[in-house]
């Protein structure tokens, strides 16, 4: 398993469910102290109860990552709880659909405001504490969507996920002097509560497009984030890792059928 030179305090935005919950679970299991953050207190409280079973101290705070002052309060809460922030997992995100022809300025702003600006604001808020740790790590949850693939209705979402990767390249250079690394994980199709109720046929159809033959688990993304936060990944910055079971590889339907 990956190692850490000392105890780590980790902030996970969007840690109340889905991929963020999986990231929080993996870090808690590795013995880290974890602060999860999201907009809904009731969902956060349920997640804290479940996460405390995996070890480490787990706390929660309400945040709207699209609001810079709310992000600063989140960082304050982590400092109050743990006295340090070593790792930020900037994961909170939304993915409503809107066709380009009908997309309103409000819809565009909502998606870019949460997914892209929310990443920038979360990083800015935690920056002084990550620098103070002497080994700060930032892991951004991007996507294959927008960077490698497209999906009708998600042009704004895809742009927000691409923007995150544009952001980390230069951020990595600016943060290097502060001994902070910043990297991104690009998930493929991951099973989350959002897919509940879609039916087995739908899930089987999605899994059939993945060479490894299954949809991703939230822990698959958590493990990649844990790697980027580990001592062993200390020389990696400004990079992005696709975690998709090979989903982006087939160059045609025929290529998939040849497996
Ligand atoms: P999810 O299950 O809907 O969880 C989203 C999390 O973000 C929740 O904790 C949610 O809590 C929080 N959140 C949303 N808006 C927020 C805001 N303005 N401020 C603070 N927290 C906010 O979604 P998910 O599928 O796990 O997605 C998580 C990340 O993975 C996103 O960045 C998404 O783009 C990326 N991703 C997901 C997949 C996938 O297959 N699931 C694939 C590629 C990339 P509240 O609603 O309570 O705020």
Remind me, CATH topology? Answer: Rossmann fold
- The first-to-last residue Cα distance is 31 Å
The CATH C-level name is Alpha Beta
Which stretches of 5+ consecutive residues score pLDDT under 50?
none
Helix content: 40-55%
Average the pLDDT over all residues and give the rounded result.
96
- Report the radius of gyration as a whole number of Å: 18 Å
> What is the number of beta strands?
7
Class by SSE composition: alpha/beta
Largest sheet: 7 strands, parallel
Oligomer: single chain
Please state the second-level CATH architecture. Answer: 3-Layer(aba) Sandwich
Order of helices and strands: EHEHEHEHEHEHHEH
What percent strand?
Answer: 5-15%
Topology:
Blueprint: E1 9-13, H1 18-29, E2 33-38, H2 41-51, E3 58-62, H3 68-82, E4 87-90, H4 105-133, E5 137-141, H5 155-176, E6 181-187, H6 200-207, H7 218-229, E7 240-243, H8 253-257
Parallel strand pairs: 1-2, 1-4, 2-3, 4-5, 5-6, 6-7
The structure holds NADP nicotinamide-adenine-dinucleotide phosphate.
């Amino acid at each position: 398993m990956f190692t850490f030179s000392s105890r780590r305090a980790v902030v996970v935005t969007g840690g109340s469910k889905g991929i963020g919950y999986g990231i929080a679970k993996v870090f808690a299991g590795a013995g880290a102290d974890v602060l999860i953050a999201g907009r809904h207190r009731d969902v956060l409280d349920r997640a804290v109860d479940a996460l405390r079973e995996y070890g480490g101290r787990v706390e929660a705070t309400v945040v709207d990552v699209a609001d810079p002052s709310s992000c600063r309060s989140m960082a304050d809460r982590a400092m109050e709880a743990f006295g340090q922030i070593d790792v930020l997992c900037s994961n909170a995100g939304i993915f409503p659909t809107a066709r380009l022809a009908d997309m309103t300025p409000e819809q565009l702003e909502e998606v870019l405001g949460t997914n892209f600006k929310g990443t920038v604001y979360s990083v800015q808020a935690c920056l002084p504490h990550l620098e103070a740790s002497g080994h700060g790590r930032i892991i951004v949850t991007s996507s294959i969507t927008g960077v490698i693939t497209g999906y009708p209705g998600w042009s704004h979402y895809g742009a927000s996920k691409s923007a995150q990767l544009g952001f980390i390249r230069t951020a990595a250079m600016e943060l290097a002097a502060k001994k902070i690394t910043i990297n991104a994980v690009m998930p493929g199709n991951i099973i989350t509560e959002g897919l509940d109720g879609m039916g087995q046929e739908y899930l089987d159809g999605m899994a059939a497009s993945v060479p490894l033959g299954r949809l991703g688990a939230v822990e698959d993304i958590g493990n990649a984030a844990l790697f980027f936060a580990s001592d062993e990944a200390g020389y990696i910055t400004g990079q992005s890792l696709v975690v998709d079971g090979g989903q982006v590889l087939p160059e045609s339907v025929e290529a998939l059928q040849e497996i």
